[in-house]
Structure formats: structure tokens, C-alpha cells
Amino acid sequence: MAGSLAALLFGGIMTTLRLSKSKIGTFTLCPQKYQYTYVDKIIPEKTPKAMLEGSALHHVIENTIVYGDKIAEISRVASDEFWKDIDLTGTEYESPEAMKKAQDSILKEAETFLSQIDPLNPVDMETYFEYPLFNPETGEVHENILLRGYMDLIDCTDDGIYRVIDIKTSARTPFDWQAERSLELSTYAYLLASRFGWNSCIPVSYLYLVRTKNPKVVWLNSARSRKDFQQTYSMLLSISQAILQGNFYKNIGMHCSWCQHQDICFHSNP
User: Fold this and answer.
1) Which of 50, 57, 64, 197 could form a disulfide with 75, with the two C-beta atoms 3.0–4.6 Å apart?
2) What is the spatial distance between Cα 265 and Cα 150, in angstroms, rounded to a whole number?
3) C-alpha distances in Å from residue 139, one per residue of 69, 112, 136, 192, 201
4) Nearest-angstrom CA–CA distance, 101 and 106
């Protein structure tokens, strides 16, 4: 038995595996990174500027997008809320002034994005979910595998159909196919279908904040149906089984160049 699997066991009893979108995304990108982050719990000493600023932008947009004519006021409140508890020593900023400059820049960028987003009809924001993995075809429930986390935004179309919206930041324009192939969006739709019925067709969208010289908003729209829900279940089950078996191999690629674990990874055995 792999050592990492042993860490998931106690007294011969399998513990509950809790999968969030971050864990699923990390494992599909690189199982070895999943091990470093979630099993070995190797946390970088300092949060990279790009990661922190991306999170700040996401927070401001998510908490302001539904307020229409109050955007300027609410965006400032959301920005202050995000940055007030950030410990300077845990970041790459050299001084309080540098961090404040970053905050002001991100707020200005957020307001530019918000001015490009048409009014939405939200029914819920930051929706928390915790649901066991469920086979839509057989009804089998995997009680020891929990899907958990938050959906950014759920809105309702004019004809009463619920849509999941996930907000992303990117340094380049996304490809049209990204929403079609997204396991993340499939998982959200799968969770909504477990509530509204497996014969539902669930619209899903990425709202991309493209952080180029001229910031722009890009919508990527798709939908998921019954056959997609079964495929999603199969993929999530395979990921869960690989994690529980300790199958943490290196997936070498372009992402290695900005991975926070590259030093330890490339000095370890393949």
C-alpha cells in the first residue's frame, strides 16, 4: 500500500474523502501536486502576488456583480474586506505601500470589468454544497466520497431555468471549447441535477475576466444533460479511486514552470 494511501486510513477504516473544485482541478492537472498540497500539506511560505491579486479581483467581482447602480460603493467595501486580514509577511510585497498600490489597482480593474457586465438575475451567491457521489443510473451512493465547496453564482433565466456561473480570471482570452470540456462546470451541473432531476438540462457558464492591456469580459456558455451527468460521475469516481490508492504521479508540462512545488518536485524521484 502506498504511503499516501496509508495517510487516508485510520485503524483499517477508510476516512471520508472530501473533494472540492480546487482538489479536483489540482489532481487532474498533476496528481503529484495534489499529494504535496493536500496529503503532505506542503504550503509555500509566501503567497505569490499573481495568486493573491487574482483572488482579490474574483472576490470584488463576485460580491459586487449584482448591485447595479451601487457598484462603486460596494466594490470598495468588498475590496477592503478582502485585504484587511492579509498579513504582509505572508506575501511577496515589499512594503505596506506596495500592497496598498496593488489593492487600488485591482479595485480599478474590477470596476472596469463590472462596467462591461450586463445585469444578472441571481438566485444565490457562494452557494455551499456538500453531497455524496451518486451514480445517476444505478442509484449507488458513495457515502465516503463527498463533493463539497461553493458555486460562485446561480442565476435564473427569463423562462425559469437555473444556470451556474463560475467566475475566472485569465491573462489571455480563453478558448471557446473550455466551457464544453470543463469538469468543474460538469460537476456543478451534476450537483444541480441531483436536486432538480437527472433528466434536467443545466446551463453552465464561465464569466472570464481577461486581464490584458485592455481588460475585457468573455462569456463561455454551455449546458449539461443526462449523459453528461453519468460521464461526470464516472470521472469523479476514477479521480477518487486514484487518490485513495495513492496514485500520485508527476504530470510534467508547461504548468511546471509556475508551480510552487517545482523545487522539491524536480529534486525527488520520478
Assistant:
1) 64
2) 30
3) 47, 47, 6, 16, 19
4) 9
HSE-up of 167 (CA within 13 Å, CB side)?
26
**Helix axes 71-83 and 49-64, enclosed angle (nearest 10):** 140
Rg (CA), the chain: 20
Instruction: Decide: helix, strand or coil at residue 170.
Output: strand
132 Cβ partners below 8 Å, 6+ apart? 141, 142, 143, 145, 146, 147
Which amino acid, 253?
G
Cell numbers at residue 156, please? 435564473
Residue-wise pLDDT for 244-270, tens only, equals: 999 999 999 998 988 888 888 876 655
d(CA 181, CA 228): 10
- Domain segments of the chain as ranges: 49-114, 122-244
Claim: this prediction has a pTM higher than 0.70: yes
Give the span between the Cα atoms of 263 and 259, in whole angstroms: 9
Tens digit of each residue's pLDDT (9 = 90 or more) over 15-70: 789 999 999 999 999 999 999 999 999 987 788 888 899 999 999 998 888 887 78
Using alpha carbons, select from 193, 223, 226, 228 the residue that is nearest to residue 206.
223
Three cell numbers written together for 267: 529534486
> What is the number of other CB atoms lying within 10 angstroms of the CB of residue 191?
22
Residue 147 phi, psi (nearest 5) = -90, 125
Q: Strand, helix or coil at 102? A: helix
